[in-house]
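Hi everyone,

Forwarding the result from last night's run.
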Amino acid sequence: MFSTFLIALREGLEAALIIGILVAYLVRSNQRKALTSLWAGVSIAVISSLAFGAFLTFTSTQLSVAGEQVFAGTTSLVAVILVTYMVFWMKRMARGLKNDLQSKLDYAMPLGKLALISASFFAVAREGLETALFIFSNFKTVSTDSAPVLGLILGLAVAIGLGIAIYKQSVKINLGKFFTVTGIALLIVAGGVLSHGIHEFQEFGALPGVNSYVWNWIGANEVISTVLAGTIGIGTTLTWLQLVIWASFLGLTLRAYLAPKKAVLTKI
């Protein structure tokens, strides 16, 4: 539940902030008539994200056991790559995101409604499609009960509430610290998804060491299983190959993410 809540909260708030920036810019520039096109693009992006998630779920249920292992492993690796890229991208672009979005609106406005719909669609769809893929992959690592779905719903609800509150200036949070902390947590969750993807390829036979366990807690306590899967994404079984790749991924990404920015020297 925790991991799906975190993913929905972080990605949902990013999308809410993007929408808030776009809406506020149109309102301040007395272009309220363009809000209809803006919301049309946002709606299409949300529907597309939901459809993509449904497609992934449907496809995984129609495959053979071997096919599902390859599909799950591949989607896990793609999700990890995209989420890792987006975490670092947000860290790099956060300060200039507002100006970037506003410049895209300025470019789209003279071109008509279709251009504005496209601009708002692509601004939100990136977050939505990435979230759908990451949540689908994360669902494979967590428990099969209703807890992950509940975490997803709660995360989106909190994200929407915070987005509205920030837009209305009724609440203020340190977004820099928020995205830093949630970025670290997302990388940890991504490490669990990566570990799951490696295991799927091991089960398929594409990678070695499927029976070389670091631990294999047969009949492990359900509470322990839920806590492990819902936080770091590591289940009650772990192979040595999973452990090495998981630890390497977290060591490299967290070190790079937390590294201080290098000062830019200017010649006098």
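Residues 246 and 252 are 10 Å apart (CA to CA).

Cheers,
N.
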